[in-house]
Design brief:
Elements lengths: L13 H10 L2 E6 L2 E6 L2 E9 L3 E8 L4 E8 L6 H14 L22 E5 L2
Antiparallel strand pairs: 1-2, 3-4, 4-5, 5-6
């Protein structure tokens, strides 16, 4: 039976094609003992801090030509408490207004179900 455009059945080749296109946008880099799977536009990751909720790295955004901070949350969905903490942190970051932070944006990259928080810094 021929596959119709837009077919999302398990036998459809489109989902795997979409995943291969998506994975072409990402790369994996190890920082310390933590693996980051991030967009290729973010380069030169260097650790700048870590804590109970995750690790923060400095990186360079090759598209905007800005230095950014990327936080990888460790086990954000381990239980309800961790999920609430992650959600609270995301909500609070939207309210950040500081002279050293020109703008910030929250990007949730659920590639391999690992969310990241991206801050664009001056």
């Amino acid at each position: 039976m021929p596959v119709q455009p837009g077919d999302t059945s398990p036998n459809s080749p489109e989902p795997s094609l979409a995943m291969s296109k998506l994975s072409a946008l990402f790369y994996t880099v190890e920082v310390g003992d933590t693996k980051f799977t991030i967009l290729k536009r973010y380069q030169n990751l260097k650790p700048i801090g870590s804590g109970a909720q995750g690790i923060v790295c400095a990186a360079y955004d090759t598209v905007t030509r800005q230095n950014v901070a990327i936080k990888k949350l460790s086990r954000p969905f381990q239980n309800v408490t961790h999920a609430k903490r992650a959600y609270r942190e995301f909500k609070l970051m939207k309210l950040v207004n500081h002279k050293n932070v020109r703008e910030h944006s929250l990007h949730f990259l659920f590639y391999s179900l690992l969310p990241y928080l991206l801050l664009v810094k001056v």
